[in-house]
Amino acid sequence: MKSDPFVAAVHARSRELLDECFAEECRFISPVVFAPYEGKEVVLTILYEGAFKVFDAENFEYVHQFEDENSAALIFRTAVDGREVDGLDLLQFDAEGKITELKVMVRPLSGMMALKDAMGKRFEALGLVTPKASA
């Protein structure tokens, strides 16, 4: 499956393996920010310096994986600051099998708010600016 290298990179918590998964012109769609984050370097930073640091590594697992020719849906479970989180990574692939879009959705609201707060602190520490929605 095209999503297998991404799953392996996440489980290994490896920036180098993630780098191999993404197209240069990719974007990340956050569950809490309207406008997407654009570009491979920003997406890798969000995942490696953000998600990998705030998700409970010992309890993160993909529990379902669905895929067709150009997209994949990966359902995960984890915890953030002691709050259980169920999530969905939606991946879109280009013709070479590289990820062009990663959209993340999470539930319940208490888990999403814990994620928002934890990622907000990481982004602030990294100087990562929230993208502005185009008019």
Your description of this structure?
There is one protein chain. The N and C termini lie far apart (37 Å). The chain is built from 4 helices and 6 strands. It has a single domain, classed as Roll (Nuclear Transport Factor 2, Chain: A), CATH 3.10.450.50. Helix 1 runs antiparallel to helix 2 and helix 3 crosses helix 4. The mean pLDDT is 90. It has 135 residues and is an alpha+beta fold. It is globular and about 35 Å long. A 6-stranded mixed sheet has the order 2-1-6-5-4-3. It is 36% helix and 35% strand.
Q: Identify low-pLDDT runs.
A: none
Class from helix and strand fractions: alpha+beta
Mean pLDDT: 90
Whole-number tally of structural domains: 1
Q: Order of strands in the sheet with the most strands? A: 2-1-6-5-4-3
Number of strands: 6
Distance between the termini: 37 Å
Task: Summarize the helix and strand pattern as letters.
Answer: HHEEHEEEEH
Strand content: 25-35%
CATH class: Alpha Beta
Q: Could you please say which CATH topology applies here?
A: Nuclear Transport Factor 2, Chain: A
Write the layout of secondary structure elements.
Layout: H1 4-12, H2 15-21, E1 22-29, E2 37-38, H3 40-54, E3 61-67, E4 71-80, E5 83-93, E6 99-107, H4 109-126
Parallel strand pairs: 1-6
Antiparallel strand pairs: 1-2, 3-4, 4-5, 5-6
Helix pairs in contact: 1-2, 3-4
Name its key features.
135 residues; alpha+beta; Nuclear Transport Factor 2, Chain: A; 4 helices; 36% helix
